[in-house]
Design goal:
single chain, mainly alpha, 3 helices, 56% helix, elongated
């Protein structure tokens, strides 16, 4: 379990002990809650901080909303 006191946008994923399996669980929850798909690709493997992960997810959500609005 991650200590919320350790969470900040600058926190490194490795420093908060977010293992790969945990990251996958987070991504699945995001996909379920926001109806977006976050591919496990090079872009995701380059993510090293909580802030970078948040930015990637926000970008996916906004892209999805934009595409849905144009349909």
């Amino acid at each position: 379990q991650i200590d919320r006191a350790e969470l900040s946008l600058d926190a490194k994923l490795e420093d908060i002990d977010l293992a790969s399996a945990d990251l996958m669980m987070v991504l699945l929850a995001i996909e379920d809650n926001y109806d977006v798909y976050v591919a496990v690709d090079k872009e995701l493997t380059d993510i090293t901080t909580v802030g970078a992960l948040v930015s990637l997810v926000v970008d996916r959500i906004l892209t999805n909303e934009s595409e849905s609005a144009s349909d």
